[in-house]
Amino acid sequence: MKIIKAEVFVTSPSRNFVTLKVTTESGLVGIGDATVNGRELAVASYLKDHVAQLLIGKDAHRIEDTWQFLYRSSYWRRGPITMAAIAAVDMALWDIKGKAANMPVYQLLGGASRNGLRAYGHASGTDTEQLFDSIREHLELGYKSIRVQTAVPGIKAVYGVAAQTQASGERYDYEPAGRGAFPQEEDWDTRAYLRHLPTVFEAVRNEFGPEIPLLHDGHHRMTPIQAAKLGKSLEPYDLFWLEDCTPGENQEALRLVRQHTTTPIAIGEVFNTIYDFQSLIKEQLIDYVRAASTHFGGISPLKKVMDYAAQYQVKSGFHGPTDISPVGFAAQLHVGLAIHNYGIQEYMQHSDATNTVFEQSMTFKDGYLHPGDKPGLGVEFNEEAALSYPYQQAYLPYNRLIDGTVHDW
Ligand code: KDG
Ligand code: MG
């Protein structure tokens, strides 16, 4: 089944997405997600200028061989741009294989291990009242697990707080990347955050009771000892997980965190390969793998890292913000349905404009996601609609401390 065409699309229905479309001689078409928030054109060029020509004439059925060829032949391995480009090819080939077999991709990965995928939603607020309203709204939508992010007194703008006006004057909601040529500057104070957050979780537990699984994202902003302190102070509120408590680069940090707290740890949304997880999983320093199919080289390596993690009772918690396109999202739903060590799936609904360009067949019902049973990934890419949403320059914000020092965002 020869590949005859590989095309790259950059479109911005509410936010930017990079999509690869692979066409075979027999007319079967597969799509893949290569979106890297704020660096979209770099990955589009990587695909257009360096990968597309390598695919022409290749057998679309040879997914593993193509993956290994792209990974090893580039010599300069890993990194978000390379791995997102490889991810898009991998997803497109799984999509094609599913269509050729007339089966959804999860069937090719071993079949369903459960009926649906437990999802978590994102509640946030600038004050307790707003946060409680947001939690109630999410419960009404069917979410059974909820991530809690709040404003911190004295800090103007905090990642993950939807209703809060940002430095740009806009609201985050589900798109923190501000339009324009420069990233917005925001402020940060870890001590204020460490003082405030436990009081928020105490209030939430008092209002909503002990049952509901609660999650929190530290977004890489703490030192190891600060993260250890936070994990410890949140123990009474029984978190499902504390995510990205320290920057992703320093794996040693989690050894220290682990020595101090039993709060479960999740990390990996900025990881690109299985090697980033190697010691974290083997030494059981984490409880959840946060990788996203899009930034991790696709479906093939995501399945492999989860099979490795299974030996250590580490579960999945794949990254699912709206900057993962519906194609990347579908890819990880198929993996999540098939693996035994599924944990939870992050779920942020895409906008109507996004759903016009990417027609999804996945469902969300009573708190559970399902990728659907259409052959392949189950997402149709509407090229004509994509054309009416041209790329818009947009960048994620960054933080500075009170004395002007740049800090993790
Ligand atoms: O583009 C950056 C987002 O993907 C990231 O900020 C979202 O941390 C995130 C999450 O947990 O969803
Ligand atoms: Mg995160």
Automatic annotation (TrEMBL):
Q: Which residues form a coiled coil?
A: none
Q: Which Gene Ontology molecular function entries are recorded, alphabetically? A: mannonate dehydratase activity
The answer to whether the entry has keyword Lyase is yes
| Record-annotated Mandelate racemase/muconate lactonizing enzyme C-terminal domain positions | 128-264
Which top EC class applies here?
Answer: lyase
UniProt KW Nucleus keyword: no
Arranged from A to Z, the UniProt key words for this protein are:
Lyase
Write down the EC number: 4.2.1.8
Kindly give the InterPro entries that the UniProt entry links to this protein: D-mannonate_dehydratase-like, DgoD-like, Enolase-like_C_sf, Enolase-like_N, Enolase_C-like, Mandel_Rmase/mucon_lact_enz_CS, Mandelate_racemase_C, Mandelate_racemase_N_dom
PANTHER family listed in its UniProt record: D-GALACTONATE DEHYDRATASE-RELATED (PTHR48080), STARVATION-SENSING PROTEIN RSPA (PTHR48080:SF6)
User: Which NCBIfam families has this protein been placed in?
Assistant: ManoateDhtManD, PRK15072.1
Name listed for the protein in its UniProt record = Mannonate dehydratase
Organism encoding this protein: Paeniglutamicibacter sulfureus
